[in-house]
Amino acid sequence: MKFSVTVTLKKDVLDPQGKVVENTLMNMGMKDLRNIRQGKYFQIEVDENDQSLAEKKIDLMCKKLLVNLIIEDYKINKI
Amino acid sequence: MKFSVTVTLKKDVLDPQGKVVENTLMNMGMKDLRNIRQGKYFQIEVDENDQSLAEKKIDLMCKKLLVNLIIEDYKINKI
Amino acid sequence: MKITNKIIEKHGLKLEEYENIKRLLQREPNLLELGIFSAMWNEHCSYKSSRLHLKKLPTKGKQVIQGPGENAGVIDIGDDDAIIFKIESHNHPSYIEPYQGAATGVGGILRDVFTMGARPIALLNSIHFGSPDHPKTKSLLNGVVSGIGGYGNCIGIPTVAGETKFNATYNENILVNAMAVGHANKNKIFYSKAKGVNKSVVYVGSKTGRDGIHGASMASAEFDENSDEKKPTVQVGDPFTEKLLLEACLELMKDNSIISIQDMGAAGLTSSSVEMASKGGLGMELELDKVPCREENMTPYEMMLSESQERMLIILDDGKENSAKKIFEKWDLDFVIIGKTTNTKNLTLKFNNKIEGEIPINALASKAPVYDREWVKKKPTKEKINLKDLKKIKIEDALVKILSSPNHSNKSWITNQYDQSVMCDTIQKSGSDAAIIRIHNKDKAIAVSVDSSANYCKSNPILGGKQIVCENWRNLITVGAKPLAITNCLNFGNPENKEVMGEFTECLDGIKEACEFLNYPVVSGNVSFYNGTNKKNIFPTPVIGGVGLIKKLFKPLGHSFKKDKSKLILIGKTFGHLEQSCFLKENYSINKGMPPEINLLNEKNNGENLLKLIDKNLILSSHDVSNGGLLVTVSEMIFNSNYGAKLHKPKKLTSLCEYFFGEDQARYVVEIDENNYSKAEKILKDNNIYYEMIGNTQKDYLEIDGELKISTKDLFKVNNKWYNNY
Amino acid sequence: MRSSVIVFPGSNCDRDIAVALEKMQFKNQMVWHKETKLPKSDLIVLPGGFSYGDYLRSGAIAGKSLIIDEVIKEANAGCLILGICNGFQILTETGLLKGTLLRNKNLKFINKDVHVKVINNETKFSNKYKKNQILNINIAHNEGNYFTNSKHLDQLKKDNLIAFKYCNEDGKINESTNPNGSLESIAGIYNSKKNILGMMPHPERMVEEIVSNKDGINLFSSLLS
Ligand SMILES: Nc1ncnc2c1ncn2[C@@H]1O[C@H](COP(=O)(O)OP(=O)(O)O)[C@@H](O)[C@H]1O
Ligand SMILES: [Mg+2]
C-alpha cells in the first residue's frame, strides 16, 4: 500500500525558506501570490494490506523519525 | 485560493536522502517498509478566484522557480 | 538488434570509426559492444584529438613521482610526504543542471585523488560564466557555487581557492573546473594497473542506476537545439556516500590488500575495467548480474555505461576478500566481487551465465583512434591602441570602474559559502594569491592556486599559454612557496575546427615553454573539447592549477598591508602594455591587440629573488601584478588591511594610465619595513633585479601625488557591491 | 580528564576536535556510532559535520543511532556534553536541548569568522572566559538559525542558559550582527542543569595562532579546571 506524508512547519514557527521563496516569486512579478509555505513530502510504500494497520505503521514512522513534532505537523494520505 | 504542490524526483534520478531515511527506518525495525522517496511540498495561496487561472499561475511558479524540471516532477492540487 | 547508421551516429561514432571497430573485432559488434566502444572512443576518454599534442608537455622532474597517465599526478614534498592532485572539467553537465553538475564534478575529482591513497586536503575551482546580463548567468552562478559548496562542505574538505570569471564567450557554455589536492605517504601510493590472473575484481560504493548513461559522449559533443533531449542523463551527487567511500578506502589501504584500484568516473564500469586491464596487459571477466543495481531490470548495456557516482573498482590480492568486505560493511557500503582478472586480454561480459559481449582490451584502449587534426597558426595581430584617440578618463574613475566590475569584485559572496576551515590546516584562505594548507601534524605546508587568462589566449595562444603558467607560478611565490608542479584543464571549442585546433596546439606550446623554463612540470590534467554551441566556440581557456611547497611554516604574509609608513617597491619593469588590459575592456569595451610579452628569464629571476626576500623574513606583504595592473594590485593590498598607500608619479612614462594600468608581466608589489629596506635592496641589487620604489603605506587613503585621493573605506565599498546587488 | 568523541557516518570535524582535545591534554577516545557502550568519560563531544549527509533534518538520523541512548543516559547522570555545530543539531533532535536549528535566513551555507559574546561565564564550559568577553570564532553551517518557543526563551533568559550570542567586534547585538537569523542572536545554549552545551561556532578551529586565533582555548581549559 502506498501513502503520502506531507510535513509542514507549525504555524508559529518561522519558515525562512518559504519566506525567501515568497520574496523571490514576488520579485519575479507574481503579484497575486499571497502566501507560500514550504514543507516536505514523502511517498511511502509498505507491505501491509490492511489500511488501518498500514496507516498506523506510517504514523509510527512519522513520530519516530520523519517528523520533528516540536516544530512540525504532518498529514498522511492514501494514494 | 489555496493549492498544494508536491515535487518529487523523477523516477530514475538518485534520491540519496530517501535512501538514507529508508535504511534508518529499516534499522529502527520497520520491516514492512518497502520503499520511500522524499520530495518537497508547498502550500500556496493566491489572490485569484478563477480556478483555472489560479492553477496557471501556480504552474508558472513551479516552472520558473519551485521545480527543477530537469530532475523533478510536480503535481498541483487544490486544497 | 541490427546496427544501423542512425544507431552509430547516436553513439557519437563516425562511420569510418565503425568500420574500424568491425575490423578490430573481425565481426559486427552487438549493441552492448557498440556502446562500450562509443564510451571508450569518445573524445573524453580516448583523448583522440589531443593525445599527439599532450605528449610534448614536460612531465618529468626530481619532484615528480607520477606524471600524467594515472588517476592523478604525484609529487614529492620531502620526508615521506607526497602530494597527489588533479583538475577536471564538468562543463556540460553543469550547464544542464548547475547544482548537480558542479557537485558531481567535485565528487569525481576527489575520487581521482583518494583512489591513489591520498587523504584529500584541499579543493579548488575555476568557474567561468557568460555575461552577467545574460538571462541564464545568475541562476547558473548560484547553482554552481552552491553545488561546489554543497559537496565540499558535506564531505568535509576545505574549498580554499579558485577563480570566477565572466565573459560573453561562455554565454551558452559555462566552464566548471574542479581541482582536488591530497596528501599521502609516498611509500603508500596506489595505482590502477592490474596485476596477476584470477584475482577478484570488486565493486564498492553506491548502487548503479540509469544516471548519466552516455555522459562521456555528451561531454564530447557540441550543444545544439536538441541538447534538451539528453537531459535525463543528469547524475545526482551524494557527498555523504562519498565520505563513507573515502573513509572505507583509506581504511582498506592501511594494509596490503589492494593490487590496484580505480574510480568509476566517466564511462563508469567500462572505462575503469578497461583501463585496469589495459595497463596490466590482462583480460577481465565481469558477471554483470552481480552488479548492485538501484533500478529494476537494468540491462548489461545500462550497467556498463551508467555514470552513477560514488563507485570504485578494486582488484584484491588473494584471500583478502573477507577482511576487505568487513571494512565496507562497517561503512554501510556495497561490496561485491563481480569478476576476475584473466589472461585472455579480452573484456568478457557475462549476464545470466551467458556471454553478452567480448572485446579485445587493446581494441578499446591502445587501438582507439588518434587524430592528427588539421590546425592553423594564429597570426599575431598588429593592432595597436593609441590612448590619444580615446576619450580622456580620470584615473580615479577608471580605477573605480575596474574594481566594481564583476570580474574584479570581491568574491566573498562565493567563498563564504564554502567551508574553508574544516580540517584545521588552512593557514591561508581564499582572498589572497594562493591558499596555504599545512601538512597535518607537520611544520610544513603547500600553497595552491588556479589561474587562466582566456582573453590573452584568444588574442595570442602562445603568449597566453606562457602567461598562465607564469601567473600561477607568481601566485605561489608571493605567499612564500617554491612552485613544484602543475595540473591543467584545457577547455577549448570544437577540435574539428582548424582555428580551434590551432589555439589548442599553440596554447600547449606556450605552456610547454614556460613549464620547461621554470622547471614546473605537468603531472596531471584533463582536456575538454566541444565547448560551444552551434559553431560558436568559446575562447580558448586553459586553466593551470599549481602546487608549491613551504618547507618551514611561518605566519602567512597575505597580500594586505601590515603597517603604516612601510616602503612599497615594485619588482620588475613597467612598460605600460595596455592592449588586452582590463583598463581598456572595462572603460572602453576594447578587446584588441596582443597580450603583454613574457620574458621567462625575468620571470624566473624576479620570482626566485622575491622568494629569497621572503625566506629571509624581509617582507611584510606581497602581491603579484596581474589583471588590472599596478593600481589595482595596490588597491587589493589595501582591502582587508587598515592602511592605504601613497604612490609617486612615474618619472619616465608620459601616460599615467599606461603606468598604473599596464599589464606587463613578471612584476610584484612588495611591502617592506623601513628597517629592512636596505637589506632587501642589497639582495635585489646583487642579483640584478629591476625594481622601483613606488611609495609607502599610509593611513586611510590611496593617493597618487596630485592625481588621486580616495579613502580606503570607499575603495572597499566599491569593490564589495557587485555580488551583493546582483 | 577523559573525553569521548562520537563519530557518526558523515561527521567531519571529529578529527579536528580530537586534535584540539589532545592538545589540551584530554585523554580522548573516538567512539563509533554503532557501539552500545561508552568508555568512562567526563566529557562527551558530538562533533560537527554532516552526519548522514544532513538528510531529512540535520542531526535527525544521528539522533536515532545506537550510541545516542548511552549519551542520553550519561547526560541525565550529569556527564558533561558538548555539541558543536552538527553536534548541537543532534542535541536538539534528541531533546537533550530544547528548540531547533532552522535553515539560515539567507538559505546559504555560511562560513566565516564571526564575533560572539560570552553571556554566561559561570559554567563548567565557560569559567575561564570573562563575562561579555567577545570572541572571534569560525562558523560553518547551513542550519544555524536557532528557534524555540517563547516559554522556553523566557526560561533561557531567566535561568541564564544562553551561552553565546552573535555580536559585532564592539559587542553590539542587532539584526546586522546576526549571521543566520537566530532568535535573539543566540549562538549557543545550555540545558537547565548546565551540563550540556550546544553551540554553532567551532571552538576547535580556534586553538592555534598560526591557523586562526586562540579564542576557543578557554572553553577547553574551563572544562579542565
Ligand atoms: N570560485 C572561487 N572559489 C574559491 N575562491 C575563489 C573563487 N573565485 C575567486 N576566489 C578567490 O578570490 C581571490 C581573488 O581571485 P583572483 O582575482 O582570480 O586572484 P588572482 O588574480 O590573484 O589569481 C583568490 O584568493 C581566489 O582564490
Ligand atoms: Mg595573484
What does this structure look like?
The complex is a heterotetramer, with two copies of chain A (79 residues), one copy of chain C (726 residues) and one copy of chain D (225 residues). Chain A is of the alpha+beta class and 79 residues long. Chain A has a single domain (2-78), classed as 2-Layer Sandwich (Mth169, Chain: A). Chain A has two helices and three strands, in the order βαβαβ. Chain A has helices at residues 16-27, 51-66, and strands spanning 2-9, 33-46, 72-78. Chain A has a three-stranded antiparallel sheet. The mean pLDDT of chain A is 92. Chain C has a seven-stranded mixed sheet. Chain C has a seven-stranded mixed sheet with strand order 23-25-22-26-24-27-28, sandwiched between helices. A six-stranded mixed sheet of chain C has the order 1-2-3-6-4-5. In chain C, helix 10 packs antiparallel against helix 13 (321-330). Chain C starts with a helix and ends with a helix. The relative contact order of chain C is 0.12. Residues 227-232 of chain C have low confidence and may be disordered. Chain D is α/β, with parallel strands linked by helices. Helix content of chain D is 21%, strand content 26%. Chain D has five helices and eleven strands; from the N terminus they run βαββαβαββββαβββα. Strand 2 of chain A pairs antiparallel with strand 2 (33-46) of chain B, so a sheet runs across the interface. The complex binds adenosine-5'-diphosphate (ADP) and magnesium ion.
Summarize the structure.
Chain C has 726 residues and is of the alpha+beta class.
Low-pLDDT segments of chain D: none
What is the number of E strands of chain C? 28
Largest protein interface? A-B, 33 and 33 residues
CATH architecture of chain D: 3-Layer(aba) Sandwich
Rg on CA atoms of chain D, Å: 16 Å
Chart the SSEs and their pairings.
The complex is a heterotetramer, with two copies of chain A (79 residues), one copy of chain C (726 residues) and one copy of chain D (225 residues).
Chain A (H helix, E strand, L loop, with lengths): L1 E8 L6 H12 L5 E14 L4 H16 L5 E7 L1
Antiparallel strand pairs in A: 1-2, 1-3
Chain C lengths: L4 H6 L4 H11 L5 H11 L1 H4 L4 H4 L9 E3 L6 E4 L4 E9 L1 H6 L1 H17 L4 E11 L7 H19 L3 E8 L8 E11 L14 E6 L9 H4 L20 H14 L5 E6 L4 H13 L2 E5 L12 H6 L5 E6 L4 H10 L3 E9 L3 E6 L2 E7 H4 L30 H9 L8 H4 L10 E3 L6 E4 L6 E7 L2 H6 L1 H17 L4 E10 L6 H21 L3 E7 L3 E2 L2 E2 L3 E10 L16 E5 L10 H7 L11 H16 L5 E4 L4 H10 L4 E5 L8 H6 L6 E5 L4 H10 L4 E9 L1 E4 L3 E4 H14 L1
Chain D lengths: L1 E6 L6 H10 L3 E6 L10 E4 L19 H11 L3 E5 L1 H9 L5 E3 L7 E9 L15 E8 L3 E3 L2 H9 L3 E6 L18 E5 L5 E4 L17 H8 L1
Parallel strand pairs in D: 1-2, 1-3, 3-4, 4-11
Antiparallel strand pairs in D: 5-8, 6-7, 6-9, 9-10, 10-11
Bound molecules: adenosine-5'-diphosphate and magnesium ion.
